Amino acid sequence: MTVGVCYFPEHWPRERWETDAAQMAEAGIEYVRMAEFSWAVLEPEPGSYDFEWLDDAVEILADHGLKVVLCTPTATPPKWLVDRHPEILQADPDGTPRRFGSRRHYCFNSPVYRQETRRIVSKLAEHYADVDAVVGWQTDNEFGCHHTVRCYCEDCAAAFSEWLRATYDDIDDLNEKWGTTFWSQRYRSFEAVDPPRPTPAEHHPSHLLDYHRFASDSVVDYNRLHADILRDHDDWFVAHNFMGDFETLDTHAVADDLDLVTWDSYPTGFVQDRRTGTPSMDELRAGDPDQVGMNHDLYRGTNDAPFWVMEQQPGDVNWPPHCPQPGEGAMRLWAHHATGHGADAVLYFRWRRCREGQEQYHAGLRKQDGSADRGYRDATDVAADLSDVDSDHVDAPVALLHDYDDWWAVSAQPHAPEFDYWEHARTYYRALRARGVQVDVVHPETDLSDYAAVVAPSLHLADDERASHLREFVASGGELLLGARSGAKDPYNKLPDELAPGAFADLAGVRVDQHESFPADVDLSVAVDGGRAADGNGDAYAVSVWSEWLDPAPETETLATHTTDLADGTPAVTRNVTGDGSTVYCGVWPGADLADELVSGLLSRAGVETTHRLPDGVRVNERDGLTWVSNFTSDPVSVDAPADATFVVGDETLDGFDAAVVESAPADLELGTDD
Amino acid sequence: MTVGVCYFPEHWPRERWETDAAQMAEAGIEYVRMAEFSWAVLEPEPGSYDFEWLDDAVEILADHGLKVVLCTPTATPPKWLVDRHPEILQADPDGTPRRFGSRRHYCFNSPVYRQETRRIVSKLAEHYADVDAVVGWQTDNEFGCHHTVRCYCEDCAAAFSEWLRATYDDIDDLNEKWGTTFWSQRYRSFEAVDPPRPTPAEHHPSHLLDYHRFASDSVVDYNRLHADILRDHDDWFVAHNFMGDFETLDTHAVADDLDLVTWDSYPTGFVQDRRTGTPSMDELRAGDPDQVGMNHDLYRGTNDAPFWVMEQQPGDVNWPPHCPQPGEGAMRLWAHHATGHGADAVLYFRWRRCREGQEQYHAGLRKQDGSADRGYRDATDVAADLSDVDSDHVDAPVALLHDYDDWWAVSAQPHAPEFDYWEHARTYYRALRARGVQVDVVHPETDLSDYAAVVAPSLHLADDERASHLREFVASGGELLLGARSGAKDPYNKLPDELAPGAFADLAGVRVDQHESFPADVDLSVAVDGGRAADGNGDAYAVSVWSEWLDPAPETETLATHTTDLADGTPAVTRNVTGDGSTVYCGVWPGADLADELVSGLLSRAGVETTHRLPDGVRVNERDGLTWVSNFTSDPVSVDAPADATFVVGDETLDGFDAAVVESAPADLELGTDD
Amino acid sequence: MTVGVCYFPEHWPRERWETDAAQMAEAGIEYVRMAEFSWAVLEPEPGSYDFEWLDDAVEILADHGLKVVLCTPTATPPKWLVDRHPEILQADPDGTPRRFGSRRHYCFNSPVYRQETRRIVSKLAEHYADVDAVVGWQTDNEFGCHHTVRCYCEDCAAAFSEWLRATYDDIDDLNEKWGTTFWSQRYRSFEAVDPPRPTPAEHHPSHLLDYHRFASDSVVDYNRLHADILRDHDDWFVAHNFMGDFETLDTHAVADDLDLVTWDSYPTGFVQDRRTGTPSMDELRAGDPDQVGMNHDLYRGTNDAPFWVMEQQPGDVNWPPHCPQPGEGAMRLWAHHATGHGADAVLYFRWRRCREGQEQYHAGLRKQDGSADRGYRDATDVAADLSDVDSDHVDAPVALLHDYDDWWAVSAQPHAPEFDYWEHARTYYRALRARGVQVDVVHPETDLSDYAAVVAPSLHLADDERASHLREFVASGGELLLGARSGAKDPYNKLPDELAPGAFADLAGVRVDQHESFPADVDLSVAVDGGRAADGNGDAYAVSVWSEWLDPAPETETLATHTTDLADGTPAVTRNVTGDGSTVYCGVWPGADLADELVSGLLSRAGVETTHRLPDGVRVNERDGLTWVSNFTSDPVSVDAPADATFVVGDETLDGFDAAVVESAPADLELGTDD
């Protein structure tokens, strides 16, 4: 329960560092991250190292009681390295190199760059192994940012062939698993399989999926290279800072080599550039708590352990389309919200607005002239708030299953421009969170025995093993909700012999007779239980974009039927009891009301206690006996808590963009808003 | 009057083929198309052929009384061929190769690929020359799909220079015909003329037009190479499957080397991706009958002979933006509609949903698990319907003139983003069809003596020869409607000396004083006969996008005048009598009501009988004494036929997406709808 | 006060030239520009020149009393030159060459092309040095058109390194000035700095700014090469024809080597393709007088001398999205409007619609058949009008400061897609012009002592020298309005140590506490003087896109405060008195009403007389005692002038698209419209 900051002493005169350290300490900051992007300063000439400035910085911070997290500086190879080895550059699909002049211009599969990485990481690890103040490391920075997970250079072409050789028995096995008879796409050797470069028509989906797996695995390998060297030198922690709503990198796989999972949270940017729908003014001011929260729960779930926010938005930022000022107190709110979701530390990025280079329009806790900015005041407040709070594990009753392979497969063949895998999953996540429930976003192979309910928005690629895992969960009393497009494909991105939901068909007691997709502005609807529910769409529940016509087995109950046009009267949502539990199959992309209806039923059957339905922008989180109330709106919220409940932070009245922490369960609170 | 199916036995276990054949026969299917895209299976190793599987498939089908159409497999050269000869790949204008990994990745002008094509086609022709069940061939597949008519590789650069050498007397002749003094674009040799690769500003329009002619001619040559070899071996028919609303390939020229013209019809896809305007729900379910019908009439007109639909949409498909399920019965409706337009066979694509590769989201008549899909039931129904129907030639009283050169010239200089040559032509086509009239879409050089009326929406490139042809038609009593931008250019895409309509000016008795273009949402209007007609736009007829100010000769009648703004009072539509006929010149892009007004007058003067004005989505077709009524809407349609008229298919009441065939002329029917 | 025409005799038979010259003389034309784009005709074979045709054309024109302006033909190197030296081609950032086939396909830094330029320009200058009729030269044509100022070829890469070497003391100086510690972007030599080619993330803003300076300087050098050769041969004038609203080339710097600044004015094109907002029908017919006028005032201001319109739109043109016919009389109106703004000659482009090449859809004064087009009649009218008018210098009381470096810096980091530097400046320009005030658009280093008021919409890059210049202006009684984002950066595109407005902070008496940006459709507002002004936005003045929260010094007056949301109550506009003048700082992008309010206050304090607020589309210009009234609307305008005021052109009633010239000051006129 603490805060920190990202610091670039190399951008400022050495005589300022003492002041900076003192101001950090005064604010209550505990952790300081440094040396990200610093290769050209650490090794200004090839083979000639200068660590002295960093030594001094570490020492000054340590003198003020601050703990240091260092970064391997590999996200920015210096120009001299690129000039010596231009083959380390990434390439676009058409072969255009991604050149020096920004960051992340290296290929994960470059043998030369891996060698250079070993060299600089070893030097640093060796140098700081005995420095007590250095408590951990961040590997590189935001692997894959700027669309760099996927590279198409010659080194990747060779590595991909090797990856395929390691994955398949032989080339006939690949031809069989992918299905290459279609369009004469058979290969006679692994060497013959190229990266998916420009072609007249779309690529083979199995080829694409494997290339995306390979590209993600390349990052996993590259991260492991860092982690192994660092662990060889000390027992500091090894972390990486992942990104929000990020598709191309399998966080679960990278995290296997990490001690600590962290991510970089920029709420007012994300709500503009990676979410469907025009942001409201409140969202421009503070973001969407479910969008941010789903990332918290993903990264917490990755290692089933507390996580950090390694970079927390400190004020206005440079990269979204528009850059409004965050709401009054928003920087404090975000830290509370993260902590409620299980963060043990929240580090603001950055200490001080930088005068040079690409991020001059990115605020820091201090302004460029050194004076305190809005974020500094918020950070100081939340550091004080959290100093009173000691909280352990988040205990979530519900798991939301997510597999990056499914994301990649759906993205390669969305079958409607609007079908975004993650946005679809967020629909269910949002409904759960609107009922005050904690959610673990976890890989489908996770042990599910401790969960009362499981929501699987789209378990797209399926085989018997995955089906067995869910079958056991339901058999022993678990309540499962399986969403649209589940089981539609086999693990190689082919259609299975049987109709969707394929391997899950017996469990769900249903077959998908037909699927169809529509523009988002076409109104579709379903009726629940044969009746017609009140809803913005008239007398039925609104659904959109995706519609399946279900063919339930005789014993399977129909929960909702289509009420639109051609599909009128056809089952849309079903429920099948197996063992001590049951499986709901939802063949549509539900609107918010239908999602609430389905999720409420699921939670009720699973015996999970919920709040009343919370309005958008107001959320609660339970962590180890404490409940965080987060108000992402500009309107006040009142909290009616049990008489004996103590407010650890705040009180019964939250201002706009305010937070409170109370010793009570969410379901025991009554939240009042103007809505 | 029959149906067929496209079949890929190589995608399924050999033990299934017998079942497939039996089910085809049971459905009433007569033709089976095979071996498209099968090169890698027919020649798995370079020089090592395996035709056995195909022999077996042909035999099994023949045993069930089915006739086979084979395809030359050249649309998909195998990877081993590409690896041996990477120079066969096409290139984008900027030189980026279009690589292996989908289809159509070869250049039509590659000498190596032409040699390889001769080899594989000869082998196949030789092998199947004695097999009775093989009744015909399809050359390659959808020439030019995925923007592949136009390639910019080095082989094309060399071939283009040779094409120019064959087209022009010498380089001075080219300089003169193109007009290369402008911007110092003179050439000193044919070798110096490059393909139109990236340039700072737009390309020379004469250069573009000739490159587009050359590219189309390259396909014509390449197709002839197939046809000649096939004809050397047997007297089976040679066909090709063209595409819908397809700009870049001159169908007329390719067809000269074909016995049978076919095309691939996907109504719910086309209405989304190659038509202006947001599709209605009915159109998402069944498409736009005029969009589909115009293609039918184009391909029927190409060889003045019955055509086939070689691929008919079988259900939902994978490639449009959205993929709704077709309306109930739509797959049957489309086959009827095609037959009414003159199709002798309609083959559904494909037999069974494919489990692998790029088209997994494309339905078949059977589902991936082998069970019957919606299309199978519709196909079975229509096969039964058509077994009772025997109908010969379509006899159209009206010709709509279309020349690909005009399309290419207008596309190179649309002068308004909204000016789409084909959409503009469709405005007139739609008006004719709404009056129940059969239309031949034919090349302007077609013998016109049998037509009562001719509509030429935009005969853009003109010379005296073309003008004479029309002059003779009108002189002998023909009624002509000449649309905007006609005669604006000479055949080399230069302005002629005289003002538009250039070579047609005497015939039309009019000169274009000015032309102008506007955004589609700017309301323009004209008044007919000096009066003001009731219309959605108030008291005048709506027109849009394109407006010419006409200067009629003294004897020329003004049919409509502009009523908008600066052009107010200026003639917009004129009529000039020459010989026994007359010529209407329409200098605007008419709205539907004005198009109806103009077309009705034309038909009336030409003595063509019409129906009352049919609502959108309901169309009639007369073929050899029978009238097809096609209902592309979800609402019922009643057919009031003469008492003695027999319904060969259906009866007086059509459901949504239903069809009927009645022994009566269209003009004798009264169709009732809710509209 | 005269008109001219651009003429391409080489496009027409020699026997026509005599007629052309006679018709020009008859129209009252004085100047004829020729030989643009004629290299391939002047040197049809390498080293073999043919100037005879041009000699003849000059002679024929001279015989009719016409004066000739010739052009260096370098905008279109012939194909034979490109084939011999393909390295002269420009390259896109990704290396794709910009090839032959249009125009402007050469690199300004190509040593080979500079040599070829010297050769052809010397030949021409030598040849025409003794020809009296040739009074001046245009260098090349529209430098930078089609995005060609910025090239990324190898010649540019080398030249950029040399440019940097000449600009900075040494590479350490560059590293310090740019700030390359950020993201390890340090360089060890000038050679190591590449052009900004494709990178994973955005480029370093200092790198971008210097590349854009270098690219502009390359054109300056290339133009000087022409000018020096031409001046070596005769004392004819040397001019260049610049473009409208053109960002990438520093006109001020090019103009230092010119005797005469000219530009090419296409009002109905510009209003469509380089202005925010959908054009009204009147604007489609005649353009936006403030958009056109701001260019007039820029190019007049460049050399503080009369300018020419070297190309004036003659009718409909080919390149905008849509091509309506100009309003009746618009071609005359534009010439009057230009003359009122200080033009001494207006040359229509082109004499006759060209039958060949890329501009066939571009009208001329004569149609392609040689007959008079609408523009010929208007040109004849205005030539007659202006023959009575003799007017000297425009004397503007207000300067609007503009620096291309600021434009480039803001474009590289707009911080909101809607923040267009030029559009923002136009907001202030428009407000000044709506009050009938003449404006000089000048470089910030211009001597300001003769101006009563100065508006600096966004002096983004600032240092002490620039601040001193303004400080002196205000100290001696000048009234200054400093707009948003002023002083935010130092001249190297880094943040200065202090907060914005940086070097201007003392003068403005204010600090920018925060800045923020919003989508254009988010309603923002401010209240003036603590009150609430009537406005379309309710009770406050509308502002948009950009908002700064100001922190005024104690003695600084707050003129307006934010009334929106989070910023409510915070100062938005301030005023600070220093010496005998004062400085208004406006921290928002004002709507038209706020801009009028601020500008009116400024003019009032500065003692500048104004008109009542003129409606959009109606403007007045004072030039040497005469006032031009220009009506860019289709509605009539009445002019109530003092009794003794003589109308030199027109009278008290202007029709739509009409102009009048009256001997009276603007402030003494009362203009009546329907508004």
UniProtKB/TrEMBL annotation, chains A, B, C:
EC number: 3.2.1.23
A GO CC annotation given for this chain: beta-galactosidase complex
Pfam families in UniProt: Glyco_hydro_42, Glyco_hydro_42C, Glyco_hydro_42M
GO terms (BP aspect): galactose metabolic process
Boundaries of every Beta-galactosidase C-terminal domain copy: 617-663
Residue span, Glycoside hydrolase family 42 N-terminal domain: 6-387
Keywords noted in UniProt: Glycosidase, Hydrolase, Metal-binding, Zinc
Stated family: Belongs to the glycosyl hydrolase 42 family.
Stated name of the protein: beta-galactosidase
